[in-house]
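User: Structure please.
Assistant: Input sequence and predicted structure:
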Amino acid sequence: MKKLIVFALSAVALLAVSGCGSKKDANKSNFADAIQDYLNTTKGVCVALPRKEAPFALEKKGGFFFAHEPEKAAALVNAGLLSAGETEVPSVFPNQKIPATQYTLTDEGKKYLVKGGSGNFGGFDAFCGGKYKVKEVVNFTEPADMFGTKISQVNYSLIVEDAPSWVTQPAIQAAYPDVKAGLGEPVPSKAVLVATSEGWMHERLFKSKGG
């Protein structure tokens, strides 16, 4: 009789242990893992080229520029990602050319170049490096049904690890202020997580898999 009781208690304990730690549970640990799974698919810290791709040329003066293109190009040269040289580009007047600066990729720049990595509307190439890591899940909403899917909104913080040296250069940070987010101090962020048959998943991963 005692052996049966011990066996029964052991079976109950085994079931209790096996039921713990399910990936489907709504808790900070599972949410941190789900967000990190998504962050692992991103390119890290990125700075877009001033033009869609390299090489490119910018007029030295009198040109019509968007979004501080000369300043960004100069910062990328200073960081060793681009090199600058003299060239000429066609003028608006027939058979005339005007002085310009030609920007080309350096060997260092080629290491970090990601085609279309900017994520902007034009699909510009970008220099990317480092990894985003979840620092802490601060809080989350109770899971609720929305359009047939159970979701939770999560507030968390992230940091950047293994950032390349060019990310920390003052010229780059002045031309691309967003790169400072997560360097040294955690930065707050938000995510929407979706409950799936395999556990919680970031909404962007969920959509990329056909959800």
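Residues 24-43+130-208 form one domain.
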